[in-house]
Amino acid sequence: MKFKLSALLGACAVVSLATAGAVQAETITIATVNNGDMIRMQGYTSQFTQETGIDVEWVTLEENVLRERVTTDISTKGGQFDIMTIGMYETPIWGKNGWLVPLNDLSADYDAADILPAMSGGLSYDGTLYAAPFYGESSMIMYRTDLMQKAGLTMPDSPTWDFIRQAAAAMTDRANDINGICLRGKAGWGEGGAFITAMSNSFGARWFDMDWKAQFDTPQWHDTLTFFKGMMDESGPAGYATNGFNENLSLFQQGKCGMWIDATVAASFVTNPKDSMVADSVGFALAPHKDGVAKNANWLWAWALAIPAGTQKVDAAKQFIEWATSKNYIELVAANEGWANVPPGARTSLYENPNYISVPFAKMTLDSILSADPNHPTVDPVPYVGVQFAAIPEFAGIATEVSQEFSAAYAGQQTVDEALAKAQALTTDAMEAAGY
Amino acid sequence: MARAVTTRRKAINTAIAWAVGLLIFFPILWIFLMSFKSEGDAIKAPLDMLSAPWTLESYGVVQERSDYFKHFSNSVLLSFGSTLLGLIIAVPAAWAMAFVPSKRTKDVLMWMLSTKMLPAVGVLYPIYLLFISLGILDSQLGLIVVLMLINLPIIIWMLYTYFKEIPGEILEAARMDGASLRDEVLYVLTPMAIPGMASTVLLNVILAWNEAFWTLKLTAANAAPLTAFIASYSSPEGLFYAKLSAASVMAIAPILIMGWFSQKQLVRGLTFGAVK
């Protein structure tokens, strides 16, 4: 009996040691968005595990669901995630709140100085980097070269809005279901709200003056909205007030748009012959500006990896971030899937690589990113950082409501003047309530 | 003549019923069709999409990218677990209100129902903080309790309605024969209320299976059910319609099949006591 008991205790000890060994294999949990580049990264995670012995669990969610989910978790110190995928809007706000682990001690091999200045600037607070860009994007014009030629026009490198309106009207062919231009009109601060804000910058408008007073009662905003609605009513697709990125991508890929101004990452989709019917006739140009205004209507955004301050696995999380946003990762993707599929817009060295520069949209993507300045997004000075957003916690809620009013105007449910008056009132109320 | 009118009316009613049924089922049918197309074909105009080649590509990608069976088993555990726990609490509660009513019984029932009127997001932060302090974030146990709580008013209401249909004299007779309270509920009341309880179980399993607010907010990698599985294929920046459709079909198929097989029971239970 004594022998049996000893054997049992011995077996338990062996099992405990084996279990302890297994527990030591660290696992990190990463919350991320569902898009092509992020899904591709998930596919290569096994290589990271092989190199480091760290397992990775992914929680992939739709962008807006993810934003709500990680905001709840980080603000309550829930500790559900060791790495979060966040954007340029959240990073400076969360960095300021002390919710993120600073990334100013990344290894020398990582070469943090290689991150494009526009990206590192937008992902920092008070000079400290809080998130490493996985990929960056701006917006630009994607247009049908065949339709432009048929219309007898040539797209300048940096066109004016007047030219775009003229070209859109010339390319529109309702009988053949071709719309001269497709733009986002869908409500939501990251959808139509992002587009109209970037467009308003190019008309000399701004969200707030230096005293945080709403500016929707200015002529610049009136001109922006009137021009947008006028051009889209003339040459846009039916129901454009509810079109976002996906709807316009679908229309463009099916050959139903002459021009589309949207995220630079869309360039790889519309030039992919597997999905796009117009892949071989797409040209690129800088987002437009108003004649006489020195700001183009392009935004700046990055999906970046950050470490929430509550995690117990900071070292493993940093190892993953260094791996996923490194030059080696870009080489890995290029070797397996071609240079057109590497995550763009994050590193300077990518745009010095002759293999990448030969990709048709590479130069215009870089030019677009470089021409967006999140610290000076408007003609007149503003107290906020961000091109298509103002990096303050209140912005997302206010901008969603404002974009709803604008979408109602696009749909003809109210006039432009009514939409602007409501936007001015609700923004003023919200900012006063927030103590500005 | 009267017979002819009746026949015509029946035909019209049948046609209307079919039309409404098809209208309700059409989105599911369309998702099913899209799931067998490539991403490029899924975004085409309806007729072009239908004539495009059929493929299992999206199912292959979804199967490769996600752990379907982990999400599926979580859905099964959460929906059946929460329903079972709800029944254990609801049967005595409904018995008490049906057979030993007080002056406040109706008020209590209305109060229970009124908890369903509170927007869930209003209690998100308190519940999230409670889960953190209890250490049950992203756990099946925590979600079973939450799903049970949000469906409990419906379970009690349904059982109360079914129990009210059962004559109290039968229970009295059992008591006179020496049955204890436990025997009365377990061996007399429950067998008589089986059709009603079955439909209550079915409805609440369906409600728990489809619950998408709490299951998305309170889970991460461990306890995520099929609602999170679907959400991982939705994207505002990138076309994933075919994969999203395939994921949706895989997520709704089990509960749809269960619904088909048990629809007679479900309808019988839901209409029980509707006409007196």
Short description:
Chain A has helices at 2-24, 36-43, 45-52, 63-75, 90-97, 117-122, 145-150, 161-171, 192-202, 219-235, 245-253, 266-270, 314-324, 327-337, 354-357, 362-371, 395-410, 416-433, and strands at residues 27-33, 55-61, 83-86, 124-125, 128-129, 132-144, 179-182, 257-263, 282-286, 300-306. Chain A is an alpha/beta fold and 436 residues long.
General description of the model:
The complex is a heterodimer of chains A (436) and B (276). Chain A contains 18 helices and 10 strands. Mean pLDDT of chain A is 92; it is low at 1-5 and 12-23. In chain A, the strands form 2 sheets. In chain A, strands 1, 2, 3, 6, 7, 8, 9 and 10 form an 8-stranded mixed β-sheet that branches. A two-stranded antiparallel sheet of chain A has the order 4-5. Chain A has helices at residues 2-24, 36-43, 45-52, 63-75, 90-97, 117-122, 145-150, 161-171, 192-202, 219-235, 245-253, 266-270, 314-324, 327-337, 354-357, 362-371, 395-410, 416-433, and strands at residues 27-33, 55-61, 83-86, 124-125, 128-129, 132-144, 179-182, 257-263, 282-286, 300-306. In chain A, helix 17 runs antiparallel to helix 18. Chain B has a domain at 66-232: MetI-like (MetI-like fold). Chain B is built from 15 helices and no strands. The interface between A and B is large, with 42 and 29 residues.
